[in-house]
Structures are given as C-alpha cells and as structure tokens.
Automatic annotation (TrEMBL):
<dbReference type="InterPro" id="IPR003593">
    <property type="entry name" value="AAA+_ATPase"/>
</dbReference>
<feature type="domain" description="AAA+ ATPase">
    <location>
        <begin position="42"/>
        <end position="216"/>
    </location>
</feature>
<dbReference type="InterPro" id="IPR027417">
    <property type="entry name" value="P-loop_NTPase"/>
</dbReference>
<dbReference type="InterPro" id="IPR017466">
    <property type="entry name" value="XrtA-assoc_ATPase-like"/>
</dbReference>
<protein>
    <submittedName>
        <fullName>AAA family ATPase</fullName>
    </submittedName>
</protein>
<feature type="coiled-coil region">
    <location>
        <begin position="325"/>
        <end position="352"/>
    </location>
</feature>
<keyword id="KW-0175">Coiled coil</keyword>
<dbReference type="Pfam" id="PF13401">
    <property type="entry name" value="AAA_22"/>
</dbReference>
<dbReference type="InterPro" id="IPR052026">
    <property type="entry name" value="ExeA_AAA_ATPase_DNA-bind"/>
</dbReference>
<dbReference type="InterPro" id="IPR049945">
    <property type="entry name" value="AAA_22"/>
</dbReference>
<dbReference type="GO" id="GO:0016887">
    <property type="term" value="F:ATP hydrolysis activity"/>
</dbReference>
Amino acid sequence: MYDQYYGLSGKPFQLTPDPAFYFESATHRKAMSYLGYGLAQGEGLIVITGEIGAGKSTLVAHLMDTIDDRRLTAAQLVSTQVGPDDLIRLVATKFGIDSEGADKADLLRDIEDFLNAQARAGKRTLLVVDEAQNLPLAALEELRMFSNFQLGNQPLMQIFLLGQPEFRDTFQESPSLEQLRQRVIATHHLEPMEADEVEPYILHRLAKVGWDGNPRFTADAMDELYKASGGIPRRLNVIAGRVMLAGAIDEASRIDGEMVREVVSDMGADADAAKESRATAAALQDAAPAAAPVAADARPVEFAPAAMTLAVDGDRVQHARDSRVAALEARIAELEAQIADQEAELRRAVTLMINWIDDGDVGRPTRRTRAA
C-alpha cells in the first residue's frame, strides 16, 4: 500500500531475508570477515550468534548469494529440535542424497562418498546450520562427526553455525561439547546497530526500491527510530514500515520524530491490548469450575441463573465467584469495543487507500488516521 503511494518498486522494510537489501553495518562487516576467513581456511567451524532479528538470516542469504558454485557446494539447514539420526537425514537431503529407507550407517557412508566426489572434482563443501540453538547436544555431536571426514589431510566439510544468544551460552559452557569447541576457528556475536548507522540503513533500503526523496525523514525521526528499535534490524523494519504506512495515509511528504513517536505509541497500545486479551482469556479459564467425577447415581448438573452452582451427588455444591466473573465479563466487553474501534479504523484506512489508487482524488482523508 505505502509503496504504491510513494511510487516505490517494492517494500523496503519487508521482514523476509533478502540478500538484495543486505546492509553492512560494523558488526555485520566483522561477521562477514570471519565467514570469509573460514572459507579461506577450508576447515573447522565458524559460530555466529545474535539476538532475534539481528540479521543472521540476511547475513546467510548474502553469503549464499556471493558463493561461486563452481568451486563450492553449499547447503543451508534451518534446524529444528531433531535428534541426531534425523539431523543426518536432513543433511543428506540438503545435498541431494536419497535418504528414503536408509539407516544411519548407510546415510553416513553416502554423505562421505558425496563429499569425496566433490573433493575429487575440485570443489569444497559447506554446511550452514541456522537456528542452531534448537539442536539438542546429541545432534551437535553429529555435526562434529561430519568435520572428521577427510580425504588425505584435506577436510571434506566445513560448517557454519548460526544461533541465538542462548546457543552461545550452551556452546561455551556445556562439558559435552568440548571436542566440538576445539574445532571452532572463529566466533562472532552480532551486536545491534549503532545510532549513527540507522539513517544509512534506512536510506540504503529505500534506495533499493527507487526512493526519490519522498517522504523525507528528518534527523529527529531517525533518532526516534533508533530509540524504538534499539538498533535491531528486524524491529527497525517493523517500525519503519508502519511509519511509512502512516505517512501514506496522512499524505505526508515529511516524516518527523513526532510521527514516529505516535506510531510507536499505537503499536505499544496494540501489543498491550493483545496481552490483556490473552490474560483475560487465561483468567476466565482459571475461574471456570473444574470438572468433578460423576458417580453412576449422580443427579444432573443444574445451573442457577443468578449464581452458578454445580450440584453433584446431591451434596457437592461449588459456588462460582460471581463478582470475579462479572468483572472479567465487563473487561471482555471493553476489549471487544476497543477491537471494534480498531477494525473500523483499519477498514477506513484500507478504503482510503483503495480510493487513492482507483479514483485519484476520491476519498482523500481530511484528518490524520492511524492504522490499527
């Protein structure tokens, strides 16, 4: 929507990792240096960690985009909580090895044969494991076994491990991973961007989609974007995208700090409402009477309209706390009203944007509206 209003060729702040939007901040430059060093060495493991949204996946996408597949065969695995045998099967599949019906020994032999064939053809093999924090220790040990494959003195597989901060802690502290740690030749933790990197990052992504200076971001808008995102690229993308949408709805050619603060405030209110809704649902579930065992000769369950009562076996009566239920019901009604207002605002915003696209001047807003 906002990309059409501002005449952009695409969405500059999409959340899907795209190597075309790779931005080399200071911390990403260091990470790429380590990865390049690892590729030059042709052996061992490289470990890259970072917070959620720090740009690990974009870093990998950029790396894979720059690899010369005539000299290097690379496979990327986004790991889940799989056991060691399943991990071996996944690795085999990533390298195009048929794993159907094969046991662990057969798969390991097939993988080693594949690696030897690559080496004889003058090609090296790289395995990139993303979200490594999801792997159990036993599966990590299997990765160490891969690093043992050699042709003469030449290692047959190199491994890059990428994960969230908890993986760094596990990797450094677990006694069972000592042998794996000894094979690591470099590590790096992706830090958030610095404040002075936010503006180049924003302008870099805008330039990739044909931005011509409209809208213009003021200096205080960049300051607010940094404060709200903490320099985490994914958070920055989310906020900047919402700010651009707000600018399109307001037909703004200038985005300043006040607009960013308003959008961030709206996003916080949305998040708070969602949390309250979840808390209310959980509280209602907790307040509901627990089901009691029913004897063969039990009387039917009876519900009193004023105060809910449950009669089982004639003697067993549990009184629901009417005041708490009433309060919860009132809160639900309040939240439903808020949601209805937000949906109305969203429908209004969508209608305005459709009118702009279809009719030019029809339906242009006369006041500031915020997307829910």
